[in-house]
Amino acid sequence: MAAAAAQGAWALPAADDRSTLRLLLASPYFLSGCAFALLLLFALVWWRRRPADPEEVERGRREYLSRVGRIVEGEILEILEEATPPALPAGKSSGRRRDAANPPGEGAANGARHLVRYTYSISGVTYETAQDVTGFEERACLHQLISGQQASVKYDPQSPGNSMLIAEDWSGLH
Length: 174
Known about the structure:
Blueprint: H1 2-10, H2 17-26, H3 28-48, H4 54-68, E1 70-83, H5 106-109, E2 112-122, E3 125-132, H6 137-140, E4 150-156, E5 159-164
Antiparallel strand pairs: 1-2, 1-4, 2-3, 4-5
C-alpha cells in the first residue's frame, strides 16, 4: 500500500486531454506567450532578410509600370552621361548581378551610366525626372535623341511621379 501511495504521488493526475488543451488555450499567459514568440520570430526573419538588389527593384518597378501605366506625352530635357564608381578590388563583390534584362551596354563598358532627363504634365502638374537607360542604349537610340524631342511617358495613375521612358517590353522614345 505504501508503494502504491508513493507511486501515486509521482504520477500525474488523470485528466482528459481536451480539458487540458482548453485550459491552456483559455490562459491569457499561454496566448500572450505564443503571440510574443510569433512576433519574435517575424522580427528575426525581417532582421535577417537579404537586402534588395537595386537593379532588381528597378526592374520590378518597370514591370509594374508596363502593366498598370498610362501614357502621356512628355519632352526630353537632356541626355546625361555619368561616370560609374570605380570597380571593387579583386575578390570583392558589390552584390550586383547583370542579367539578360539589363545587359551591360556600351555605357557600362566605357564606365558611364546614361541618364535621360524628361518632363511631362498630368492634370496641370508638371513632373521632371530622369531614368537610367544604361543597358537600353541601343534600343533607346541615344545617338538620335535630342533636347526638346517629344516622347511618350508611361506613369502610374495612383502615383503620377512614378514614370518611365523605356523598359524591357515598352519604349516611349520616338
